[in-house]
Amino acid sequence: MFILRHISKIYDDASTPTEALKDVSLVFERAGLVALCGPSGSGKTTLLNIIGGLDHQTKATKDFDKSYLHYPEGEFIVSGVLTDNFDEDDWDTYRNERIGFVFQNLNLLAHLSVLENVELGMILAGEEAPARREKALEALKQVGIADFAETTSAQLSFGQKQRVAIARALANDPDVILADEPIGSLDTQTGREIMVLLKRIAEKKLVIMASHNEAVVEEFADRIVRIKDGEVQSDTTKHDTERVKGRKHLQQRTTIPFLSAAVLSFRGFRAKLLRNVLAMVATGLGVAGLALVMGIAIGFSGELRKIERDTLTTLPVSIYQNPAHTPYVAAAYSAAPIRDDSLWFNPIEFTRSRSVRANNINDAFLNHLDGLYDSLISGISYRYGVSMPFMRDSGGTLVDSDAFGIRLQPLADNTPYLQSQFEVRAGRYPENDREVVIIVDIENNIDSAILSFFGLEEEEVAFEDVLGKELVVVFNDDMDIDFDIAENRFNREMGAPAYENGIVLTLVGVLKGIPSGVETMTTGLFYPDTLEEAYIAENIESDFCKAIMDLDLFDIESVETRSNIVYQRRLNGCRDTPNVIDIFPSSLDDKTWVLHHLNVYNWNVSETNQIAYTDHAAVLSSFLGSVSNNVLFTLLALGVISLVVSLMMVVVLVYIGLLERRREIGILRSLGASRKAINRVLNIEVAMAGFVAATLGIAAAALLSWPLNVLLRGALIGFGDIVQVRFLPSVALIVVTTLLTYGVSIIPTRKVTDVSPADIIRGAE
Ligand code: ADP
Ligand code: MG
């Protein structure tokens, strides 16, 4: 059945090459117990490995420099098939179907049960579970230890293990059993029992055993081949080795079915549970880190978008007579968006007090604004820079705003804006221009003089306490106004007549800027700005206004006096052209058209009459956008680092794990598992670990996000949950991690399995 003709083996890995086999020619029949006898180092194991297909002869032409080799090139023929043309798959199949190994050190897998050890070769052959089990039990019965099927091999004595190893060799019904020193480590009694067993097996099969125990061998062996220094010394049965020739290929290939592979993986995984769990925890932490980073990225930009959606739509496009008033000075000049890179000066008309150009808000522009479609805007609010003086009857005595140094400020007459920017903390929003409100900033700050004016001097004043209080706005003609132009001194006296003729306003609410809005710092006493027009209509006819409007500024020498006159005209309601205009677009889309409308005006007027406007929403969103980009890039970098670290963990995990399991890999290979199949088993194992680790990592991140959000709450005004571990990204992360772990495990796996099984087996001895 086996013909070895002129087989030589030279190990060339040491400094001096070892000739382990020298021109060995032997023929083995279909059955019988053949003993290879010889001292240690004579080449017995090498010969068994070559017969078993674990190792191959050294070929002069192919593998080796001819000068070493003094022997003719050999041939190894199996059942008439010359093995010269065997590829790796053929050898795998050969081992799996024809050979049963009993290794010198047995090489049972400690983490599998006795039965599973015996089943291993059949799993590799793709045998169905019930048939496999039956055959394995049959083999165990044959060697006489069926009772131990369910125990792990670690619990058995050496003699019993020897029987399991023989059962494993027998289970897949091979043509030949190769046993390396099967009785070498046994006491005489047990050794004899094993020999009886082998002898019985040899009635039907070929059994080739290596041994140096002459006495036992003489008693049991049908044939004894004596080897020394790699040469056959004697053979009790001579054959003509030149007889048979053959050229044919073996057909069937060994594959590990997927499910069996997964089962093997799981068992292997369980065997090194602690180390695997530790490595998985590390991987899981990496994934958790990435999940958190992604959660922050998602949560942060999501919250940002929410803020933008909630607030930006309601923000006005503002036109200031003097653009320096705008809180976002740098971005205020949207009307001249194109940068001029020439080296020529551009002389424009500046106001004297500030180095910015004043907007010329004239009738032409106001008419143009009237042409805006109503559907595009929710309203336009005009302000005139009025400061209305006001009084109050404080238990019989009249007090006035000048004495307290306080002012009324205008509130944009636009309900959506008010509701998006302010929340009611007491009372309600103003509903008409006879109602005023107090607004507190985020710290509930209020000018104490305002409370004093209303007679609220106590230590603690509640919001509720101001509701229902009244004040009276007074007109110019009811006061004594004295403006000493020469001294540039303005003074006014309010008395009972002013109080009687004034407009009564009632305090109806206390408001507060909402955290995500732009009015968080606003504080003071406010009235709906529609009141201004009524007030101006009355005052513009007053004696004071007529007088101050009649003044010719060119007659005034002092610059201070001149600007004070301009200031007092507005303050006292003598000017009916607005100095601040807030246009409230209906939506962000409509805003585009509003801006277009403004640009149309600018295209049609001279440069000095062009109107610069401030798009608050654009300014705010570009600011938020740049903040969010910075944050997101930082997080992205962290995420990538986290991912790389966790992948490195996987590579380390795989490599350490594989080095530990080289012996198992060798055994599987000797049983006929193809390298590809083993790679697959190991890769599945790693992917499984990656999957579990990623899932646990996500779970950890989800759990962590909760306290993190509690911790971060309030860190950014207006933000809700900043860390949001969402379902779909999590699933994606698990899938990606699993695939990546599978991917990165491929190379280290290849590296470890890319060695000859003989080396692994021998290396384990
Ligand atoms: P035996 O099994 O009879 O003790 P072996 O077949 O194991 O003998 O070894 C035969 C010779 O080959 C010995 O001299 C041994 O040192 C050498 N040898 C075996 N395996 C290797 C190897 N992988 N590399 C180098 N030398 C080896
Ligand atoms: Mg040996």
The proportion of strand residues reads 15-25%
How many DSSP E strands?
Answer: 24
The shape, in one word, is rod-shaped
Helix content: 40-55%
Uncertain ranges: 243-250, 325-338, 349-355
| Tally of structural domains | 3
Tell me the structural class.
Answer: alpha+beta
Task: Let me know the largest β-sheet.
Answer: 8 strands, mixed
Question: Can you describe this structure?
Answer:
The structure is a single chain. The chain is an alpha+beta fold and 765 residues long. It has three domains: 2-254, Rossmann fold (3-Layer(aba) Sandwich), CATH 3.40.50; 273-306 and 625-764, no CATH class; 316-586, no CATH class. Helix content is 44%, strand content 18%. The protein is built from 23 helices and 24 strands. Strands 13, 14, 15, 16, 17, 18, 21 and 22 form an eight-stranded mixed sheet that branches. Helix 3 runs parallel beside helix 5 (158-171), helix 9 (273-312) packs antiparallel against helix 19 and helix 20 packs across helix 23. The two termini are 29 Å apart. Residues 243-250, 325-338 and 349-355 have low confidence and may be disordered. Adenosine-5'-diphosphate is lined by residues 11, 13-14, 18, 20, 38, 40-46, 762.
